[in-house]
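// run 5 | inverse folding | seed 20
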């Protein structure tokens, strides 16, 4: 019978390259590591590790088995966290991933009502959409808020349940004191010399929209810097150092910035609530309902 200790030993040998170093890392004795490895190899009737004077290395079959073992241990870890959370004084911890601009506007009131109805503890983790999706698939969050270009979605997957909440047009964010702010509508053909603030991730929705808009007028955007810090973006724009693409709900009114539409159609940003496409805890279902109520009418039927 295979047990989790045997799988952990195999992964430690793969990581450290010797039985001795694996034993040290796991705080086992070398005989204990050897015993678990020998037992596993006998059970599978195959050599998983080649031992030599220079250390130990996994065989091709050992490497293939280790990849599966790593996934098994990750799933067991997730299951243990779930049980521990539900055991903790009868509370369920709901972890939600979100990007900063919308999370601070939509989530607080929804969480307050959620906690009035259910005995639930909520943890909010701020991250960019690609990271929120990664955390969801890894089991690190139960649900998330993401955004993407409505006409160029980046997160299509049969395993992902996506509920649109907001749909709003992209605009150019610029300083209120900028010469460009005097214009009601901007044209990308006249913005070739302006510096732009980009996301750290090339696949981020606004970056893709920006590159596409400039390609229509035969130019490439000039980069000022890359950052996902909203305060930094607003501060740079307010000082007239650069421009950024944004939407109305993402604008922080504490900064001296404004939005302008463009001659070019920039499309729209869609904000969605996401979960894995399977049965989810009651708290997740209720949170989705509360968010839909707060954004009712924001997405065309």
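// decoded
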């Amino acid at each position: 019978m295979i047990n989790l200790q045997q799988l952990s030993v195999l992964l430690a040998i793969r990581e450290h390259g010797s039985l001795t170093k694996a034993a040290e890392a796991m705080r086992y004795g070398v005989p204990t590591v050897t015993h678990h490895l020998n037992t596993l190899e006998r059970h599978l009737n195959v050599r998983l590790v080649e031992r030599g004077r220079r250390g130990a290395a996994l065989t091709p079959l050992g490497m293939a088995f280790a990849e599966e073992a790593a996934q098994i241990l990750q799933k067991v870890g997730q299951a243990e966290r779930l049980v521990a959370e539900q055991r903790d004084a009868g509370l369920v911890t709901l972890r939600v991933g979100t990007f900063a601009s919308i999370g601070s506007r939509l989530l607080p009131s929804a969480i307050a009502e959620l906690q009035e109805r259910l005995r639930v503890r909520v943890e909010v983790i701020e991250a960019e959409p690609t990271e929120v999706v990664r955390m969801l698939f890894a089991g690190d969050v139960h649900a998330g808020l993401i955004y993407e270009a409505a006409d160029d979605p980046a997160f299509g997957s049969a395993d992902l349940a996506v509920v649109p909440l907001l749909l709003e047009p992209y605009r150019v964010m610029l300083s209120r004191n900028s010469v460009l702010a005097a214009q009601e509508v901007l044209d990308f053909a006249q913005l070739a010399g302006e510096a732009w603030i980009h996301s750290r991730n090339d696949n981020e929705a606004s970056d893709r929209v920006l590159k596409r808009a400039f390609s229509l007028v035969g130019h490439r955007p000039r980069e000022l810097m890359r950052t996902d810090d909203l305060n930094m973006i607003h501060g740079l724009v307010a000082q007239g150092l650069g421009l950024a693409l944004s939407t109305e709900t993402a604008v922080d009114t504490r900064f001296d910035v404004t939005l302008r539409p463009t001659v070019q159609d920039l499309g729209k940003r869609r904000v969605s609530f996401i979960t894995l496409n399977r049965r989810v805890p009651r708290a997740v279902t209720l949170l989705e309902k509360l968010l839909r109520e707060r954004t009712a009418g924001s997405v065309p039927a």
